[in-house]
């Protein structure tokens, strides 16, 4: 466990559901891979193909297209609720709140995690659009260290951490000016 590196931790409050991997390893692996797919819906898949075909849709059109895709997803979500169907995730035994985050790690509030044990979890990341990020993590030295996360999710995670760091720096500068 010498590979663990210190990371700056930023306070936050994120929801996480998790369980020890050995309790249902195969189902967790299937869900992890399913949630990996770039977009789970047809419109997201279409957008991904358009980007691949025409390059990285830049400029104002890309922003408008992203917003339209997100509106489409919201309408689909409302349609699903009206019909009574919801996304089914593999049930996880534990729910908690992530109190601090860093690059490649996080800390949980009030949990009794076993040291050096592999866990599977789903984190609700409040980005646009809100994402469910599947991760495998090991609890070590009072921190959960991310062992496996999809590349796209890692970019979103690191972006979220960096955004929280920038907000903290702005807050500290504002406090210093006020003194």
Key attributes of the depicted protein:
6 strands; about 45% helix; alpha+beta; about 180 residues
Task: Kindly describe this structure.
The protein is an alpha+beta fold and 179 residues long. 43% of the residues lie in helices and 27% in strands. The chain has four helices and six strands; from the N terminus they run βαααβββββα. The protein has a six-stranded antiparallel barrel with strand order 1-2-3-6-5-4. The protein is globular and about 45 Å long. The N and C termini lie far apart (44 Å). The mean pLDDT is 82.
How are the SSEs ordered, and which strands pair?
Blueprint: E1 10-20, H1 25-36, H2 42-54, H3 60-83, E2 94-102, E3 105-108, E4 118-125, E5 131-140, E6 143-149, H4 151-178
Antiparallel strand pairs: 1-2, 1-4, 2-3, 3-6, 4-5, 5-6
Number of strands: 6
Estimated structural class: alpha+beta
Intertermini distance: 44 Å
Order of helices and strands: EHHHEEEEEH
Low-confidence stretches: none
Can you give me a brief rundown of this structure?
This protein has 179 residues and is of the alpha+beta class. The protein is built from four helices and six strands. It has helices spanning 25-36, 42-54, 60-83, 151-178; strands at residues 10-20, 94-102, 105-108, 118-125, 131-140, 143-149.
